[in-house]
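Thread amino acids onto this structure.
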């Protein structure tokens, strides 16, 4: 029994020492990092790090990356909160999070339904200011944070700053559209004043935005560079589509250009009512009882093909011409193998487009069929 007691006593000492060492090790590991605690791994993807803000008229537009659906689901996100602090422009950029949260206010929210409905990779929010709030005496500091269904707010995003400018041109007026074979031409009147009613308007150009039916306007204009004139030809369209346009004036800013609010929207249905040009320089030649016709190709992008007609007289009414091609042909050569020796024929070519518009007949070409 004494031997067993000694053995038990020795093992008790070993176990005690082991537990003490383990506890000390855990304590050292847990206390080795100095600084605020990091959010759990599953929340890290929901802390925006590239929040940006820019001015468009009286709107301060915030943009930041949309989290993945998996991150939103795993974190049980309820909404995104947009916080704004109005401050003196000389306030240092670095500001403790506690100070910001104590003095900022929530100016908007995006629910999880709003966030999930966005198909793009970027979320956005418009903070609309009153015109008298566009003053150089204030700077707006923004941050975004998400909160979950338990009401727990996640850490803040980076700060985004903006000092608004008041002398921004008003949007263009009196938009008009005109459809041609090759382009939708837009025209407008230049603004006559700035948003704060000062003159002359600070306009350095225009940006044009286009959307199709049931779509939103994209973030990028259809023009590669600012439009200097008060007209523009949109050649990147397709007949049959409905198109909607807005135009924004561009004004110079402190560090970059600033767009005006949207102009009134204008729409146009691009219905193709434009006939192709009549084929030209048609030539013909006969060999025995076969007539061959040749002509240069039309250049219309929506050309479907050509219809070939034959007449016995040059002055024969068009309703009496013989149609040699029941469907449009795409080549620019044709053979008439039904000609009769000893006859003289007159041939006409008509171009037709994909909308069914027919050109005027070409000039006739006379071909005599000889033995």
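Threaded sequence (371 positions):
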């Amino acid at each position: 029994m004494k031997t067993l007691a000694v053995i038990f006593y020795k093992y008790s000492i070993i176990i005690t020492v082991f537990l003490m060492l383990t506890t000390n090790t855990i304590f050292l590991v847990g206390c080795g990092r100095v600084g605020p605690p990091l959010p759990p791994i599953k929340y890290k993807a929901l802390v925006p790090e590239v929040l940006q803000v820019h001015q468009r008229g009286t709107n301060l537009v915030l943009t930041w990356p949309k989290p993945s659906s998996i991150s939103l689901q795993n974190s049980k996100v309820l909404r995104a909160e947009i916080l704004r602090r109005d401050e003196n422009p000389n306030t240092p950029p670095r500001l403790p999070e506690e100070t910001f949260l104590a003095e900022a206010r929530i100016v908007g929210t995006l629910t999880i339904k709003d966030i999930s409905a966005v198909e793009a990779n970027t979320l956005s929010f418009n903070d609309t200011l009153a015109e008298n709030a566009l003053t150089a005496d204030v700077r707006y500091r923004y941050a975004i944070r998400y909160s979950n269904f338990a009401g727990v707010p996640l850490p803040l995003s980076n700060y985004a700053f903006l000092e608004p400018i008041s002398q921004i041109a008003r949007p263009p007026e009196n938009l008009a559209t005109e459809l041609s074979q090759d382009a939708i031409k837009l025209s407008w009147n230049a603004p006559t004043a700035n948003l704060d009613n000062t003159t002359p308007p600070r306009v350095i150009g225009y940006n044009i935005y286009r959307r199709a039916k049931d779509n939103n306007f994209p973030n990028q204009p259809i023009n590669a560079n600012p439009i200097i004139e008060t007209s523009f030809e949109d050649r990147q369209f397709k007949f049959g589509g409905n198109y909607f346009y807005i135009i924004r004036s561009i004004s110079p800013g402190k560090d970059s250009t600033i767009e005006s609010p949207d102009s009134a929207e204008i729409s146009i249905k691009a219905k193709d009512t434009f006939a192709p040009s009549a084929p030209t320089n048609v030539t013909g030649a006969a060999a025995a009882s076969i007539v061959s016709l040749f002509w240069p190709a039309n250049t219309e992008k929506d050309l479907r093909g050509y219809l070939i007609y034959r007449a016995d007289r040059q002055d024969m009414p068009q309703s009496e011409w013989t149609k040699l091609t029941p469907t449009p042909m795409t080549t620019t050569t044709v053979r008439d193998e039904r000609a009769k020796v000893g006859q003289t024929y007159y041939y006409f070519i008509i171009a037709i487009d994909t909308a069914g518009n027919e050109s005027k007949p070409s000039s006739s070409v006379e071909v005599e069929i000889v033995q």
